[in-house]
């Protein structure tokens, strides 16, 4: 076999493997959104992707790698908004604007967010991934907004309340009461202001 033909076959094999991985990831994302990670089996993934179960195991021997690939795939189609504190407005208005953007994203991705938050503590690989990604991101945002609010010296209650405001489950609770994203963000802004500036 010529070197050129060998390279061609290796390239073709690599492309088939890439396409197979993409089908597996797409199938897994769809199942996670439909039934949730805890109820998604390898057999379900293989059936949806049109491959054998062994192929799924070979493509993703570590479950966390599959969850990470699914997360990247989902976020590529549903990019998260930029929520970092901006300049030009007072700190509470900036926070309310950021939270409203986040809540709009939660509303768009509600089915997936509900399933992964419900199941994360049932699936260790998913929980570990979310601890290192979602939790870190929201912690950093809470720190940034609390620091901006307190001008460098955030209090624990303010930081904790901002962190609670950023949680999907917080939005879900109020949204299911029929409140709009803007109304929820404004209500929680007022709650933070009350903690920061209690009545004498």
Put simply, the count of helices is 11
Helix content range of the residues, please? over 70%
Mean pLDDT: 91
Question: Regions with pLDDT < 50 over 5+ consecutive residues?
Answer: none
Largest β sheet strand count, sense and barrel closure: none
- Please indicate the percent range of residues in DSSP E strands (runs of 2 or more): under 5%
Can you tell me the overall shape?
Answer: elongated
Topology order in helix (H) and strand (E) letters:
HHHHHHHHHHH
Please give the alpha-carbon distance between the first and last residues.
Answer: 87 Å
Structural class: mainly alpha
Radius of gyration computed on alpha carbons: 21 Å
- The total of beta strands comes to 0
Give an overview in words.
This protein is elongated. The longest helix has 32 residues, at 3-34. Helix 1 crosses helix 4, helix 2 crosses helix 3 and helix 5 (91-108) runs antiparallel to helix 11 (181-196). The protein has eleven helices and no strands. 75% of the residues lie in helices and 0% in strands. The protein has 200 residues and is mostly helical. The model has no long low-confidence stretch (mean pLDDT 91).
């Amino acid at each position: 076999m010529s070197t050129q033909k060998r390279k061609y076959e290796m390239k073709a094999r690599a492309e088939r493997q890439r396409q197979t991985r993409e089908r597996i990831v797409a199938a897994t994302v769809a199942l996670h959104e439909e039934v949730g990670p805890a109820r998604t089996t390898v057999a379900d993934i293989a059936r949806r992707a049109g491959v054998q179960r062994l192929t799924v195991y070979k493509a993703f021997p570590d479950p966390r790698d599959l969850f990470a690939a699914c997360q990247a795939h989902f976020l590529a189609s549903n990019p998260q908004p930029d929520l970092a504190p901006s300049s030009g407005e007072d700190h509470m208005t900036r926070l309310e604007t950021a939270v409203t953007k986040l809540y709009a994203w939660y509303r768009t991705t509600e089915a997936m967010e509900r399933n992964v938050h419900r199941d994360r503590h049932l699936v260790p690989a998913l929980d570990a991934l979310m601890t290192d990604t979602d939790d870190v991101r929201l912690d950093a945002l809470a720190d940034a907004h609390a620091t901006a609010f307190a001008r460098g010296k955030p209090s624990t209650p303010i930081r904790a309340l901002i962190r609670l405001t950023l949680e999907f489950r917080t939005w879900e609770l109020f949204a299911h009461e029929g409140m709009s994203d803007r109304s929820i963000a404004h209500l929680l802004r007022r709650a933070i202001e009350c903690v920061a500036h209690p009545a004498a």
